[in-house]
Each structure stands twice: as C-alpha cells, then as structure tokens.
Amino acid sequence: MTKISEETQETRTGGLTSKPVVDRKDKQQKRESKNVMQVEDLNLWYGSNQALYEINMDVPEKRVTAIIGPSGCGKSTFIKTLNRMVEMVPIVKTSGSIKYRDQDIFNGNFKQEYLRTKVGMVFQSPNPFPKSVYDNVAYGPRVHGIKKKEVLDEIVEKSLKDAAIWDELKDRLDANAYGLSGGQQQRVCIARALAVEPDVILMDEPTSSLDPISTSKVEELVQELKKKYSIIIVTHNMQQAARISDKTAFFLNGELVEFAETDDLFQNPQDKRTEDYITGRFG
Ligand SMILES: Nc1ncnc2c1ncn2[C@@H]1O[C@H](COP(=O)(O)OP(=O)(O)OP(=O)(O)O)[C@@H](O)[C@H]1O
C-alpha cells in the first residue's frame, strides 16, 4: 500500500510534462450509477495565463468527489468553473464543455441564476451575513420570492436540520450569526446553501479554518449530505480526502493527472506524479 503523507505543503512543482488523466473508466462505470456533471476538454485562462488544461471529468451523483493537489494547481479555479462563478473575474476565458444534467451550462439559454441555485457553494472561511441565523437561511428562498412565514419557517428548520445544527440553534434563531463559533457559522452557511434546494454542493476547503471538533462535525455532515446531494470538495488535507470521499481527483499544474475511486488512488496510484504527491515527495 502506498503511504499517504500527513500533510501537503504550500509549494508547486515544475517541469512535469508527461500526459495527463488516468481515468479507470471500466471500474468506474461498474460502480457508478449516474453522473450529475460532465466536464469535457475544459481549458481556462486568466488573461494570457492558462490555469486549466484539457480537463475531462464526470462528477458522480450522490457521492463525494475530492479535489487534491498542491497550492496553485487549479483546484479552486476548477470548482468555481462548475457554477461559472470563476467568470466574475473579467479576464477569464474558457473553452470546452460542462454539462449539468445533460445541459450545456455555457449555452446562452442556460440561466446562470438557475445554475447557481442547483450548483451551490460553501467557501473556505464561513461567510454568514451580519443577520440572524433565521435570516441567513431564509435569504435565498426570499430572493426566490418566497414570502409566507410558515413556508420560510419550514425551510429554515429543514435546512438547519439537514446541516446538523438545528438542535444547537433552534432556540437561538434570532441570534446574530456572527456570534456563533466558526464551526457553527460554517454549518449555518451550509444550511443557507441547502435552503435553495441545490443538487450539487461545491465546497472549497470548508474545514481549513475550523478546529478538529468542528472539522469532524462537518466531515460527518458531508457523509449525511451525500445521501441527497452530489458533493465536490477541495481539500489540502489528504487524510481528509481519504476519510470522506468516494472518488478523488489529483490536479497538478492545471492538469487532471489522475481521477479514480479514492481507495484506488491512494493505495494504487497509476501515475508516478500522484504517487510522489500522496507519499509526500513533493507539494
Ligand atoms: N483571479 C485570478 N486572476 C489571475 N490568476 C488567478 C486568479 N485566481 C487564480 N489565478 C491563478 O490560477 C492558478 C490556479 O489557482 P487556484 O487558486 O485555482 O489554485 P488552487 O489549487 O486552488 O490553489 P490553493 O490551494 O492555494 O487555493 C494559479 O496560477 C493562480 O495564480
């Protein structure tokens, strides 16, 4: 078995030029029922700097997909491309295709608001609004035109329950979310994402600012959430990827080097660069 290094470091490697993507499709297709998103030949540039190269990846439904790789390899850029948030940077250009449930998200007829509702996002640092817990969770549904108090009450309760924080906060719904612990804030942000009924949840290092107990609560929550949602999680922590994900994608220098069942990727990497990375030889 290949030994996973304890932690990744904040460095990049250079000069690795061999061909990308070892995708063990046979095994993959046997184990998977359906894909919720399909990425084909995706390239992305920030101005003249190319950040993603020919990415091909099927995102499985109701499973956890981890994205690992050294700092600057394109992990955040990649997941922000999945809900087109990356295009908030005006110099971004893309080529290739991304499908959400067989619809091309770059097609002009595909509404971006709909995409961002269906493909929700949770960020690295908890970012609640300076409002009550209730108003944070009710925010999205209100934007979508839901006004009735009974309906909002129901959504808030369900979302907080699904984010495994209802019991802790049910008597403090009027409290300002800023007064909560970091771990509680992050679960409120997850509840806020759930309140608009997403299908896919993108998580960009959601536990990197949390203590170990809050981290394990979020990790347990991810296991619960995958019963209903498809989750893509960027993590610097390979132990975390090994613990919570079903599939793992290893990115390096903007390339998807290897994408496989998590156990396979960590125990039997097919690409030398993956092996070097997970054993801590670089990055
Ligand atoms: N807004 C931006 N404008 C220009 N270049 C950017 C921008 N955001 C990211 N990049 C570049 O794109 C490349 C990929 O960055 P990205 O943040 O996606 O990597 P990452 O793997 O998520 O890194 P980290 O683990 O440090 O968060 C880097 O070279 C980075 O400098």
UniProtKB/TrEMBL annotation:
Keyword vocabulary terms for this entry: ATP-binding, Nucleotide-binding, Transport
Region (Disordered) location: 1-34
Compositional bias segments (type: Basic and acidic residues): 1-10, 21-34
Biological processes, Gene Ontology terms: phosphate ion transmembrane transport
InterPro entries: AAA+_ATPase (IPR003593), ABC_transporter-like_ATP-bd (IPR003439), ABC_transporter-like_CS (IPR017871), P-loop_NTPase (IPR027417), PstB-like (IPR005670)
Lyase among keywords: no
ABC transporter domain span: 37-278
One cellular-component annotation, GO: membrane
GO molecular function term, any single one: ATP hydrolysis activity
SMART domains: AAA (SM00382)
Name assigned to this protein: Phosphate ABC transporter ATP-binding protein, PhoT family
The species this protein was found in: Halobacillus alkaliphilus
Organism classification: Bacteria, Bacillati, Bacillota, Bacilli, Bacillales
